[in-house]
């Protein structure tokens, strides 16, 4: 299940977006200020962010440069073309002007998530190259076959290798790729991934972070 972070200080708009996105099958996190969004991003990495600009405290223009490797759709009442161009050049993936059509917005979200999937056909971390569409990892020319569940877990960890990912988050985020992973079986799946990767170069590539979950090992 894809997770979307809605950053908007308007409670009614936040509720509208949350209801629409939940009905469309997305998991939703909410933040009502730029500072609160920073706190949410420090704990979990969403698949996409809907970002208002006129926020209390840290505004959207200030928050945008801090967001790395996550598509951001700006949703703002600012309609000036110069504002749109500037934000797109600053890293926004798309710009939607308020008031918006919810069906158009959800279509734009689907497009961005589809683009992200295409971009992630190959992932790299240190000497590991992951080919999710082939369920294969390569370490120093050694090919490693992965199950669908193992591949989904490794893909999630490699997308943001320096950020620990919680067990519950892993289960939620990989459910779209593989529904068979449970909290009981997760540890065994990760153990299998570590064993397969270690067999290729003798190194342990995944570490447990006490009280949180797992991350790639630097």
What's the overall geometry?
elongated
CATH superfamily of the largest domain: Response regulator
**If classified by CATH, what would the architecture of the largest domain be?**
3-Layer(aba) Sandwich
Main sheet makeup: 5 strands, parallel
Order of helix and strand elements from N to C terminus:
EHEHEHEHEHEEEEHEHHEE
Q: Quick check: average pLDDT?
A: 89
In percent, how much strand structure appears in the residues? 15-25%
Helix count? Answer: 8
**Could you tell me the radius of gyration in angstroms?**
19 Å
CATH topology of the largest domain: Rossmann fold
How many extended strands?
12
Name the CATH class of the largest domain.
Alpha Beta
Which structural class best describes the helix and strand composition? Answer: alpha/beta
General description of the model:
The protein has 218 residues and is of the alpha/beta class. The chain folds into two domains: 3-119, Response regulator (Rossmann fold), CATH 3.40.50; 123-216, Winged helix-like DNA-binding domain superfamily/Winged helix DNA-binding domain (Arc Repressor Mutant, subunit A, Orthogonal Bundle). Helix content is 43%, strand content 22%. It has a five-stranded parallel β-sheet, with helices on both faces. It has a four-stranded antiparallel β-sheet with strand order 6-7-8-9, with helices on one face. A three-stranded antiparallel β-sheet has the order 10-12-11. The longest helix is centred in the C-terminal third of the chain and has 19 residues, at 183-201. It is elongated and about 55 Å long.
């Amino acid at each position: 299940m894809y997770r979307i972070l809605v950053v908007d200080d308007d409670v009614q708009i936040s509720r509208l977006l949350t209801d629409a996105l939940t009905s469309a099958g997305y998991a939703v996190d909410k933040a009502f200020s730029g500072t609160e969004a920073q706190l949410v991003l420090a704990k979990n990495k969403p698949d996409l962010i809907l970002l208002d600009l006129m926020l209390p405290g840290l505004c959207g223009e200030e928050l945008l440069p801090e967001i790395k490797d996550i598509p951001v759709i700006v949703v703002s009442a600012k309609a000036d073309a110069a504002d749109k161009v500037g934000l797109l050049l600053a890293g926004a993936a798309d710009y939607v002007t308020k008031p918006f059509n919810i069906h158009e917005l959800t279509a734009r979200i689907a497009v961005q998530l589809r683009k992200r999937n295409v971009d992630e056909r190959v992932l790299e971390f240190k000497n590991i190259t992951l080919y999710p569409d082939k369920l294969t990892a390569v370490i120093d020319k050694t090919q490693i076959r992965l199950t669908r569940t193992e591949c989904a877990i490794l893909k999630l960890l490699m997308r943001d290798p320096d950020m620990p990912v919680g067990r519950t988050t892993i289960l939620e985020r990989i459910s779209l790729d593989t529904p068979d992973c449970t909290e009981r079986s997760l540890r065994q799946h990760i153990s299998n991934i570590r064993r397969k990767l270690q067999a290729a170069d003798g190194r342990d590539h995944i570490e447990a972070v006490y009280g949180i979950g797992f991350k790639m090992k630097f």
